[in-house]
Write a structure and sequence with these properties.
By secondary structure, the protein is an all-alpha fold. It has helices spanning about 1-40, 50-75. The radius of gyration is 25 Å and the shape is elongated. One of its GO terms (biological process) is regulation of DNA-templated transcription.
Length: about 80
């Protein structure tokens, strides 16, 4: 009985580790795809390592936010 449990546990363990590896591969591929997409969207993002890309992205978001604020202020000034 104990031997049978050990074999079943080993099979479950092996199966779950395979599933875990597959899951990690899928997640890794998904992250790589998202990083490539982000590199295309952010100016100057092509060829940047992910850590630099994230900093560049943060700066780009701040730049866009500033542009929105300026345009909103200008639209208030020129309202009839």
């Amino acid at each position: 009985m104990k031997l049978r449990r050990a074999v079943c546990y080993k099979q479950m363990s092996s199966s779950s580790s395979r599933n875990s590896l597959k899951r990690r591969r899928v997640v890794r591929r998904s992250v790589k795809t998202k990083v490539k997409r982000l590199q295309k969207i952010v100016p100057g993002g092509q060829g940047l390592e992910p850590d630099r890309l994230f900093l560049q992205t943060a700066n780009y978001i701040l730049h866009l936010r500033l542009q929105v604020d300026v345009l909103q202020a200008l639209s208030k000034l020129y309202k009839p």
